[in-house]
Specification:
five-stranded mixed β-sheet; D-Maltodextrin-Binding Protein, domain 2; Sugar ABC transporter substrate-binding protein; TAT_signal; three-stranded antiparallel β-sheet; single chain; 2 domains; alpha+beta; 552 residues; transmembrane helix
């Protein structure tokens, strides 16, 4: 059985949900929304300020492992790319490590919950594990409510629990994590991870994000280094004889204006683009020794002014002007608009959705540029957007076995484990087409849903070989962009904010729309900043200053 990048996580309906998760939890949904950045916070634990300082002492040692060589190696943390399906798979864990236990796991699912009885997919993966994982699956749209209920009673907590970052319940960092979940520091810190080579292959940044109150609790679902891109319809521009040469913010507005005419508009709402090209900080920045919040920063202000200029130019699609952004992707893909923001996962999804009807379809991200034409700054996205936790127990053998199972689930592309977890069983869940690529069976749609990936996941790899030219283009773009990847302040730190500051950033969400569309002015921004400061912003600044001081 060969490794296959075409369905499971990578090619069918499951990919929509997975990339959707990434977009919600990282840049595409969070850039430009200060309120969202504080909306899932809780009261701080007494030791929360020491969390990040201690992270380096408690996380696993990073020991990269390569089972098959990528065609495009990782550069500065970029995603490695594989242009072909390996002829031979490597079984990274030679013997199933489980002892025949039956273990429970709670995970979300954005789709139809698969049957458990007689499920050949579960049988295959559990066979690799040597123990059975019984899933308690909840609709992802209400998963946060279910999670809060389960965590309220320790006896109801399953052996293994997935927790998306946006579903962190109140008091998670201050009370729940230490009382409900297992401290993994004694099992994984430093060289102790060596018995689990696939876990050691996960980046240090992803592990740091799993540290709460100075101890390692979580198992990560790693994310992209660069989460977002600015796309244009290269196929359409080529048909018009236009080769874009965008080196600064004004170039982009000029191009959008040039492309506007008839029933075509140059751009969608490019607020995320504005934040990217102006390097608006995700949350805080240091100006000398002073903490400056995103909304107070010159970069944020300049981004708003740029986006307002774009709207004023008349190049933004009327539906985007009317804030009907739910159809922005379909407008872009149908050619009604020609420049749009999207998460990087949207690139291959667009090819999947459009190539059959339009074989020449191609969207391309602009090479990174800064609004002023200088050196770009691309803030890294969260190193992990979902993590899982093991129920606290005095049975060390059980924890050791669970970690051994996690090591199987973290096997990267090119391994038997990865192939089975993501694609199921050949002849059962897929067959081979004439081109050698797998074709999913009807049973795959019923049985093979993303479940195990929510417990722990390997580092991301670029493996969409079914789209000619895509792996090369995506890998090269990501490698180029990664040279500009920059750690934002407090990067990869689990900082638990006081609950009373959860909503003070919310007014900026509407204000960004109003200023962009000319309904309000920068004077209104100044007033909103003063209200933010007096409504808790200064106290929040002091809270973060204490964290900085504790780490110096």
């Amino acid at each position: 059985m060969n490794a296959t990048p075409t369905f499971g996580r990578l090619g069918d309906h499951a990919v929509d949900r997975r990339r959707f998760l990434g977009l919600i939890a990282t840049g595409a949904a969070v850039v430009g929304i200060p309120g969202l950045l504080t909306s899932c916070t809780t009261a701080p634990a007494p030791s929360s300020t020491a969390n990040a300082a201690a992270a380096g002492d408690v996380i696993p040692k990073y020991i990269p492992v390569t089972y098959i060589d990528p065609d495009y190696p990782s550069v500065n943390g970029s995603v490695p790319g594989f242009e072909s399906i390996p002829a031979e798979l490597v079984q990274s864990v030679k013997t199933a490590p489980g002892t025949g236990l039956t273990l429970t796991a709670m995970t979300p699912l954005w789709g139809t919950i698969p049957p458990t009885k007689g499920n050949k997919y579960y049988e295959a993966v559990n066979g690799l594990l040597g123990s059975d994982i019984e899933f308690q699956i909840t609709d992802g749209n209400v998963y946060g409510d279910k999670l809060a209920t389960v965590l309220a009673s320790a006896k109801d907590v399953p052996d293994w629990v997935c927790v998306p970052t946006w579903n962190l319940p109140p008091r998670f960092g201050s009370e729940i994590v230490e009382n409900v979940f297992q401290d993994l520091t004694p099992f994984l810190a430093g060289d102790k991870v060596t018995p689990y080579p696939n876990l050691a292959n996960i980046s240090s940044d992803a592990w740091k994000f799993c540290v709460f109150n100075g101890k390692l609790y979580g198992l990560p679902f790693p994310g992209e280094v660069i989460t977002d891109a600015i796309f244009y319809r290269r196929d359409v521009l080529e048909s018009l004889g236009i080769t874009p040469d965008v080196k600064n913010g004004q170039d982009l507005i000029d191009l959008a204006v040039e492309l506007t005419g008839g029933n075509v508009w140059g751009a969608e709402d490019l607020w995320n683009t504005a934040a990217i090209i102006h390097a608006a900080p995700p949350k805080w920045k240091l100006d000398g020794d002073k903490l400056v919040h995103r909304v107070e920063s010159d970069e944020y202000r300049a981004a708003l002014e740029w986006n307002a200029a774009l709207f004023k130019s008349g190049a933004v699609h009327p539906d985007a002007v009317a804030d009907q952004n739910g159809e922005a992707k379909s407008r872009f893909q149908s050619g009604k608009s020609l420049i749009a923001n999207d998460g990087v996962g949207g690139w291959h999804e667009a090819l999947r959705d459009n190539l059959a009807a339009n074989p020449s379809y191609w969207q391309q991200p602009f090479d990174p540029f800064a609004a002023d034409g200088g050196t770009p700054v691309l803030w890294k996205g969260n190193p992990a957007n979902i993590f899982s936790f093991l129920k606290k127990t005095d049975d060390e053998a059980k924890i050791t076995e669970l970690l051994a199972l996690a090591n199987v689930l973290a096997a990267p592309y090119g391994t038997t484990e990865y192939d089975t977890i993501n694609n199921g069983v050949e002849g059962v869940h897929y067959t081979r087409g004439d081109d050698g690529l797998p074709v999913p069976t009807e049973l795959a749609a019923t049985e093979l849903q993303p479940t195990y990936i929510f417990l722990v996941d390997p580092p991301i790899s670029e493996t969409h070989v079914q789209y000619p030219g895509y792996v090369k283009a995506a890998s090269e773009w990501k490698a180029n962009a990664a040279q500009y990847a920059t750690d934002p302040l407090f990067y990869a730190q689990q900082i638990v904010e006081p609950q009373q500051y959860a909503s003070i950033g919310q007014p900026f969400v509407d204000l960004e729309k109003d200023i962009s569309r000319g309904r309000k002015s920068m004077d209104d921004l100044d007033a909103a900043i003063e209200t933010w400061r007096s409504s808790g912003g200064e106290e929040l600044r002091a809270f973060y200053q204490d964290i900085l001081d504790s780490q110096s």
